[in-house]
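Batch queue: ligand-bound targets. Current item pairs a single chain with zinc ion. No template structures supplied; prediction is de novo from sequence plus SMILES. Inputs echoed for audit trail.
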Amino acid sequence: MIAVVVAACMLAIAGPAPDALDVAWPAEGFPTGRATLVEVRSAPARSPIVSLTGSLGGRAIVAFPASGDRRRWLALAPVSIEQKRRQLPLVLDATLQDGSAVGWRKPAPVIEAPYDERHLKVSKKFIKPSVAQRKRAAREAKALSVALATVTPERLWRGSFARPTAGVETSPFGTRRTYNDKKKSRHLGLDLDGAVGAPIVATARGRVALATERFYSGGTVVIDHGHSLFTMYFHMSRIDVRVGDVVEKGQGLGAVGATGQVTGPHLHFTVRFGELYVDPARVLALDLSADAVDVPPVVTRP
Ligand SMILES: [Zn+2]
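Prediction returned. C-alpha coordinates below.
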Protein backbone atom coordinates (compact mmCIF):
# COMPACT_ATOMS: atom_id res chain seq x y z
CA MET A 1 0.00 0.00 0.00
CA ILE A 2 2.78 2.44 0.99
CA ALA A 3 4.73 1.57 -2.12
CA VAL A 4 1.78 2.62 -4.30
CA VAL A 5 1.55 6.03 -2.56
CA VAL A 6 5.28 6.66 -2.98
CA ALA A 7 5.13 5.78 -6.65
CA ALA A 8 2.25 8.21 -7.21
CA CYS A 9 4.16 11.01 -5.47
CA MET A 10 7.28 10.42 -7.52
CA LEU A 11 5.24 10.68 -10.67
CA ALA A 12 3.92 14.06 -9.56
CA ILE A 13 7.41 15.35 -8.74
CA ALA A 14 8.80 14.21 -12.09
CA GLY A 15 6.28 16.50 -13.76
CA PRO A 16 4.91 16.47 -17.28
CA ALA A 17 6.93 16.23 -20.47
CA PRO A 18 8.59 19.45 -21.76
CA ASP A 19 6.06 22.05 -22.90
CA ALA A 20 4.68 21.49 -26.37
CA LEU A 21 3.84 25.21 -26.50
CA ASP A 22 6.16 28.21 -26.17
CA VAL A 23 4.16 31.09 -24.71
CA ALA A 24 5.32 34.72 -24.54
CA TRP A 25 3.74 37.99 -23.39
CA PRO A 26 4.99 41.60 -23.02
CA ALA A 27 7.66 42.14 -20.31
CA GLU A 28 5.29 44.39 -18.32
CA GLY A 29 2.80 41.54 -17.94
CA PHE A 30 -0.98 41.96 -18.19
CA PRO A 31 -2.17 45.49 -17.25
CA THR A 32 -5.64 45.94 -15.76
CA GLY A 33 -8.28 47.25 -18.20
CA ARG A 34 -6.46 46.07 -21.30
CA ALA A 35 -6.45 43.21 -23.77
CA THR A 36 -2.86 41.94 -23.96
CA LEU A 37 -1.40 40.14 -26.95
CA VAL A 38 0.04 36.69 -26.18
CA GLU A 39 2.23 34.79 -28.64
CA VAL A 40 1.92 31.01 -28.74
CA ARG A 41 4.23 28.77 -30.78
CA SER A 42 4.30 25.02 -31.13
CA ALA A 43 7.68 23.68 -29.95
CA PRO A 44 10.07 22.84 -32.84
CA ALA A 45 9.79 19.10 -32.23
CA ARG A 46 5.98 19.16 -32.26
CA SER A 47 3.49 19.52 -35.10
CA PRO A 48 1.58 22.75 -35.97
CA ILE A 49 -1.41 23.99 -33.97
CA VAL A 50 -4.81 23.24 -35.49
CA SER A 51 -6.95 24.92 -32.84
CA LEU A 52 -6.25 27.01 -29.75
CA THR A 53 -8.58 28.13 -26.98
CA GLY A 54 -7.94 29.30 -23.46
CA SER A 55 -8.60 31.71 -20.65
CA LEU A 56 -6.92 34.21 -18.34
CA GLY A 57 -8.35 34.23 -14.84
CA GLY A 58 -11.35 32.31 -16.17
CA ARG A 59 -12.07 34.87 -18.94
CA ALA A 60 -11.97 33.48 -22.47
CA ILE A 61 -9.17 34.62 -24.77
CA VAL A 62 -9.46 34.98 -28.56
CA ALA A 63 -6.75 33.15 -30.51
CA PHE A 64 -5.93 33.02 -34.21
CA PRO A 65 -3.10 31.67 -36.41
CA ALA A 66 -0.44 34.26 -37.27
CA SER A 67 1.75 32.27 -39.66
CA GLY A 68 0.90 30.30 -42.78
CA ASP A 69 2.37 27.09 -41.28
CA ARG A 70 0.13 27.40 -38.17
CA ARG A 71 3.12 27.18 -35.83
CA ARG A 72 2.71 30.75 -34.53
CA TRP A 73 -0.57 31.96 -33.03
CA LEU A 74 -1.63 35.19 -31.37
CA ALA A 75 -4.20 35.52 -28.60
CA LEU A 76 -5.90 38.52 -27.03
CA ALA A 77 -6.28 38.14 -23.27
CA PRO A 78 -8.43 40.71 -21.41
CA VAL A 79 -8.03 41.72 -17.73
CA SER A 80 -10.73 43.58 -15.78
CA ILE A 81 -9.97 47.21 -14.92
CA GLU A 82 -11.08 46.36 -11.36
CA GLN A 83 -8.86 43.26 -11.06
CA LYS A 84 -7.09 43.30 -7.65
CA ARG A 85 -5.17 40.03 -7.95
CA ARG A 86 -1.60 40.36 -9.18
CA GLN A 87 -1.47 36.90 -10.68
CA LEU A 88 -4.03 35.06 -12.77
CA PRO A 89 -3.87 31.56 -14.27
CA LEU A 90 -3.29 31.58 -18.03
CA VAL A 91 -4.72 28.38 -19.45
CA LEU A 92 -4.28 27.22 -23.05
CA ASP A 93 -5.73 24.19 -24.78
CA ALA A 94 -4.34 23.33 -28.19
CA THR A 95 -4.96 20.58 -30.67
CA LEU A 96 -1.93 19.76 -32.80
CA GLN A 97 -1.95 18.53 -36.37
CA ASP A 98 -0.83 15.05 -35.27
CA GLY A 99 -4.10 14.82 -33.32
CA SER A 100 -2.59 15.26 -29.84
CA ALA A 101 -4.31 17.51 -27.31
CA VAL A 102 -1.97 19.81 -25.41
CA GLY A 103 -2.79 21.60 -22.17
CA TRP A 104 -0.71 24.49 -20.81
CA ARG A 105 -1.25 26.36 -17.53
CA LYS A 106 0.93 28.91 -15.73
CA PRO A 107 0.42 31.97 -13.53
CA ALA A 108 0.52 35.25 -15.47
CA PRO A 109 1.59 38.55 -13.81
CA VAL A 110 -1.09 41.28 -13.62
CA ILE A 111 -0.04 44.92 -13.12
CA GLU A 112 -2.24 47.85 -12.13
CA ALA A 113 -2.43 50.29 -15.07
CA PRO A 114 -2.68 53.99 -14.09
CA TYR A 115 -6.10 55.63 -14.57
CA ASP A 116 -7.11 59.22 -13.81
CA GLU A 117 -9.41 60.46 -11.07
CA ARG A 118 -11.77 63.39 -11.88
CA HIS A 119 -14.21 65.43 -9.79
CA LEU A 120 -16.95 67.00 -11.92
CA LYS A 121 -19.74 69.49 -11.27
CA VAL A 122 -22.75 68.86 -13.49
CA SER A 123 -26.30 70.18 -13.72
CA LYS A 124 -29.09 68.25 -11.97
CA LYS A 125 -30.66 66.90 -15.13
CA PHE A 126 -27.59 64.65 -15.62
CA ILE A 127 -27.81 63.31 -12.08
CA LYS A 128 -31.55 62.87 -11.54
CA PRO A 129 -33.50 61.57 -14.52
CA SER A 130 -37.29 61.47 -14.19
CA VAL A 131 -39.14 58.24 -13.39
CA ALA A 132 -40.09 57.83 -17.06
CA GLN A 133 -36.48 58.40 -18.14
CA ARG A 134 -35.23 55.89 -15.58
CA LYS A 135 -37.74 53.31 -16.82
CA ARG A 136 -36.68 53.91 -20.40
CA ALA A 137 -32.99 53.65 -19.49
CA ALA A 138 -33.63 50.37 -17.63
CA ARG A 139 -35.41 48.91 -20.68
CA GLU A 140 -32.54 50.01 -22.90
CA ALA A 141 -29.93 48.58 -20.53
CA LYS A 142 -31.73 45.23 -20.66
CA ALA A 143 -31.85 45.26 -24.48
CA LEU A 144 -28.11 46.00 -24.56
CA SER A 145 -27.38 43.15 -22.13
CA VAL A 146 -29.34 40.77 -24.35
CA ALA A 147 -27.37 41.90 -27.42
CA LEU A 148 -24.04 41.55 -25.59
CA ALA A 149 -24.93 38.09 -24.27
CA THR A 150 -25.19 36.73 -27.81
CA VAL A 151 -22.25 34.46 -28.53
CA THR A 152 -21.29 34.30 -32.20
CA PRO A 153 -19.05 31.22 -32.42
CA GLU A 154 -17.04 32.34 -35.45
CA ARG A 155 -14.57 35.23 -35.49
CA LEU A 156 -15.87 37.74 -38.04
CA TRP A 157 -12.85 40.10 -38.08
CA ARG A 158 -9.23 39.87 -39.16
CA GLY A 159 -6.17 42.07 -38.75
CA SER A 160 -5.62 45.36 -36.94
CA PHE A 161 -8.49 47.62 -35.83
CA ALA A 162 -9.29 50.86 -37.71
CA ARG A 163 -9.81 54.22 -35.97
CA PRO A 164 -13.60 54.78 -35.95
CA THR A 165 -13.39 58.55 -36.52
CA ALA A 166 -10.64 61.05 -37.34
CA GLY A 167 -10.98 63.28 -34.24
CA VAL A 168 -8.38 63.50 -31.46
CA GLU A 169 -8.77 61.71 -28.12
CA THR A 170 -10.44 64.05 -25.62
CA SER A 171 -11.12 61.73 -22.68
CA PRO A 172 -9.26 58.47 -22.08
CA PHE A 173 -10.62 55.10 -20.98
CA GLY A 174 -10.70 54.22 -17.30
CA THR A 175 -11.03 57.62 -15.60
CA ARG A 176 -12.87 57.36 -12.30
CA ARG A 177 -15.38 60.22 -12.21
CA THR A 178 -17.13 61.63 -9.15
CA TYR A 179 -20.13 63.84 -9.96
CA ASN A 180 -20.97 66.65 -7.51
CA ASP A 181 -18.99 64.76 -4.83
CA LYS A 182 -21.63 61.99 -4.89
CA LYS A 183 -22.21 59.67 -7.82
CA LYS A 184 -19.15 57.74 -8.91
CA SER A 185 -18.55 56.00 -12.20
CA ARG A 186 -15.84 54.73 -14.49
CA HIS A 187 -15.42 56.07 -18.02
CA LEU A 188 -15.40 52.74 -19.85
CA GLY A 189 -14.94 54.13 -23.37
CA LEU A 190 -12.63 56.42 -25.30
CA ASP A 191 -13.95 59.85 -26.31
CA LEU A 192 -12.95 61.02 -29.78
CA ASP A 193 -13.58 64.62 -30.81
CA GLY A 194 -15.62 65.46 -33.88
CA ALA A 195 -18.07 67.96 -35.34
CA VAL A 196 -21.69 66.90 -35.78
CA GLY A 197 -21.79 65.02 -39.08
CA ALA A 198 -18.17 63.78 -39.09
CA PRO A 199 -18.10 60.19 -40.41
CA ILE A 200 -17.88 57.17 -38.10
CA VAL A 201 -16.67 53.85 -39.53
CA ALA A 202 -16.60 50.26 -38.27
CA THR A 203 -13.32 49.52 -36.48
CA ALA A 204 -13.40 45.92 -37.74
CA ARG A 205 -15.64 43.57 -39.66
CA GLY A 206 -18.73 42.36 -37.82
CA ARG A 207 -22.50 42.15 -37.64
CA VAL A 208 -24.67 45.04 -36.38
CA ALA A 209 -26.25 43.86 -33.12
CA LEU A 210 -27.98 47.11 -32.12
CA ALA A 211 -28.76 50.32 -34.03
CA THR A 212 -31.07 52.55 -32.03
CA GLU A 213 -31.74 55.77 -30.11
CA ARG A 214 -31.14 55.48 -26.34
CA PHE A 215 -31.65 57.83 -23.36
CA TYR A 216 -28.05 57.94 -22.10
CA SER A 217 -26.02 57.01 -25.16
CA GLY A 218 -28.22 58.69 -27.83
CA GLY A 219 -27.75 57.34 -31.35
CA THR A 220 -26.11 53.97 -30.68
CA VAL A 221 -24.56 51.25 -32.83
CA VAL A 222 -23.22 47.98 -31.41
CA ILE A 223 -21.18 45.62 -33.60
CA ASP A 224 -20.69 41.93 -32.81
CA HIS A 225 -17.26 40.84 -34.11
CA GLY A 226 -17.70 37.24 -32.98
CA HIS A 227 -16.19 35.33 -30.02
CA SER A 228 -17.93 37.80 -27.65
CA LEU A 229 -15.92 40.79 -28.91
CA PHE A 230 -18.14 43.86 -29.36
CA THR A 231 -17.53 47.52 -30.23
CA MET A 232 -19.99 50.32 -29.46
CA TYR A 233 -20.49 53.79 -30.91
CA PHE A 234 -22.45 56.36 -28.84
CA HIS A 235 -24.04 59.82 -29.27
CA MET A 236 -24.36 59.52 -33.07
CA SER A 237 -26.36 62.15 -34.98
CA ARG A 238 -27.10 59.74 -37.84
CA ILE A 239 -27.17 55.94 -38.14
CA ASP A 240 -26.69 54.41 -41.61
CA VAL A 241 -26.83 50.69 -40.70
CA ARG A 242 -29.49 48.26 -39.49
CA VAL A 243 -29.48 45.32 -37.11
CA GLY A 244 -28.23 42.23 -38.95
CA ASP A 245 -26.10 44.11 -41.49
CA VAL A 246 -22.61 42.70 -41.94
CA VAL A 247 -20.22 45.67 -42.04
CA GLU A 248 -16.66 45.61 -43.32
CA LYS A 249 -13.75 47.29 -41.54
CA GLY A 250 -13.82 50.99 -42.50
CA GLN A 251 -17.44 50.89 -43.69
CA GLY A 252 -19.55 53.92 -42.70
CA LEU A 253 -21.87 53.46 -39.72
CA GLY A 254 -23.16 57.02 -39.49
CA ALA A 255 -22.01 60.33 -38.07
CA VAL A 256 -20.72 62.02 -34.90
CA GLY A 257 -23.38 63.77 -32.83
CA ALA A 258 -24.33 65.13 -29.42
CA THR A 259 -27.34 62.89 -28.78
CA GLY A 260 -28.10 61.37 -25.37
CA GLN A 261 -26.72 62.78 -22.12
CA VAL A 262 -23.69 64.74 -23.32
CA THR A 263 -22.32 68.28 -23.14
CA GLY A 264 -21.08 68.43 -26.74
CA PRO A 265 -20.52 66.43 -29.93
CA HIS A 266 -18.07 63.53 -29.74
CA LEU A 267 -17.87 59.77 -30.30
CA HIS A 268 -17.81 57.60 -27.17
CA PHE A 269 -16.15 54.42 -28.48
CA THR A 270 -16.20 51.21 -26.45
CA VAL A 271 -14.54 47.81 -26.81
CA ARG A 272 -16.03 44.93 -24.87
CA PHE A 273 -14.43 41.50 -24.52
CA GLY A 274 -16.80 38.95 -23.04
CA GLU A 275 -17.97 40.74 -19.91
CA LEU A 276 -15.02 43.13 -19.71
CA TYR A 277 -14.53 46.64 -21.06
CA VAL A 278 -10.95 47.22 -22.25
CA ASP A 279 -9.03 50.33 -23.27
CA PRO A 280 -10.02 51.07 -26.91
CA ALA A 281 -6.88 53.19 -27.50
CA ARG A 282 -4.74 50.12 -26.69
CA VAL A 283 -6.83 47.92 -28.96
CA LEU A 284 -6.45 50.41 -31.84
CA ALA A 285 -2.66 50.40 -31.27
CA LEU A 286 -2.29 46.59 -31.49
CA ASP A 287 -0.35 45.40 -34.53
CA LEU A 288 -2.41 42.45 -35.72
CA SER A 289 -1.12 42.52 -39.30
CA ALA A 290 0.15 38.93 -38.93
CA ASP A 291 -3.52 37.95 -38.63
CA ALA A 292 -3.87 38.78 -42.33
CA VAL A 293 -1.66 35.89 -43.48
CA ASP A 294 -3.26 33.17 -45.52
CA VAL A 295 -3.56 30.01 -43.50
CA PRO A 296 -4.38 26.96 -45.60
CA PRO A 297 -7.18 24.77 -44.25
CA VAL A 298 -6.08 21.87 -42.10
CA VAL A 299 -5.91 18.55 -43.93
CA THR A 300 -6.98 15.81 -41.56
CA ARG A 301 -5.65 12.38 -42.17
CA PRO A 302 -8.19 9.55 -42.42
ZN1 LIG B 1 -17.20 58.94 -23.22
